[in-house]
Amino acid sequence: MINGNITVLELSENHPEAFNLFVSKGFDNFNKETTLKSAGKFLKLETAIKQKNYDIKTFLESLNEIDSNNDAKVDITLRDSKKDGDITVKGLLPCPVRLPLLEGIDAFAESITEKTGLSVAHDLIAASAGQQWLNDNVVGIRAEDVPDVFVSAGFDVFFDERSFGKHVRNGMFKDMTGDTHSYFSHMKDPKGNYGMIGVVPAVFLVNKDALDGRAVPKSWADLLSPEFEKSVSLPVGDFDLFNALLVHIHKMFGEEGVVKLADNMVQSMHPAQMVKNAGRKNEAKPAVTIMPYFFTKMLFGSKSAEVVWPEEGSIISPIFMLTRADREDVARPVAEFLYGKEVGEILSHRGLFPALNPQVDNNLPEGAKFNWVGWDYIYKTDMGALLEKLDKVFNDALGA
């Protein structure tokens, strides 16, 4: 983990992706090998950040987020998961809050063991590297292998008949979350199968230098207009959020909207890369980047960048929680912890992933709304088949 006590040289040698962001925020002099090997050998990271009057905590969180994405595949094999126990918890954790959540879960597991004598086994990996893990652990999962609690963001694995969808239909799960904020009340599953602990909102990062006379887009409809053809960067690599975009755009605008989204895409880039380039004039740079709200923390006052919360509401990737009804005696304490104030504040305050727990102040921008596809739509739709279809529509429009 990157902390303020390491030197700039150590950052460059051990965390190259994070070092690229560091350099882009006004430390260009360390691109010179002589400066890096001389001043960088002694200059502590915290001291350098203070010199630029940046918020140290926010800057370090941003560096660690990039570093965790870069190391995610290694993390799968090296992280010490506790896979054997009386209570089983599995899933994917959002990268920006993965470490504090794991610390909290470990402490919670110890308290459960002290109180009950039961051990808690957890296999919780970084969401950015989760596709292979999902294929290995969820696709085709048998009833006897379903964990007591499963938590992750996204749509496909939760509704697809090839994974959890068939078990939901057979009544295996029960929503064990509690009351919610009034602005999230429509996201509570009326059938009581699915729980939701938080959301990953998508917002616009607008590069005003690349607008070329165009007005700042304020809505999803604006973003799909011909004005922004080949001008938008999409989080294609973030399959949870990208699938959420496809589903919601289809709900609002039909297949034509998905085609327009493809027409307007100029490139796919990790949000951290887009933030790193904020303020740089570049012909290939998109005018608008759709990104998780979390990454707006990394802008550090860029004058050319504007964050827009869409008028129709931010499209969200839900952070779902499935809890086994037949194991309620052991699943409920875990569910109450994951839905509780402590975890909610980690999600909301450290990751900018608004939590549904009403005890958590999500500090949302004024007028912020959420665009939710709705439970009626979900229960009437084969979501697995829909996502396959929309992915094909999108890629056909790209000519891929």
From TrEMBL:
GO terms for molecular function: thiamine binding; thiamine pyrophosphate binding. GO terms for cellular component: outer membrane-bounded periplasmic space. It holds the Pfam family DUF1858. It comes from the Bacteria. Gene3D superfamilies: Periplasmic binding protein-like II, SP0561-like. SUPFAM superfamilies: Periplasmic binding protein-like II (SSF53850), SP0561-like (SSF140683). Coiled coil: none annotated. This is DUF1858 domain-containing protein. Residues 2-59 form the DUF1858 domain. InterPro entries: DUF1858, ScdA-like_N_sf. Keywords: Signal. One of its GO terms (biological process) is thiamine transport.
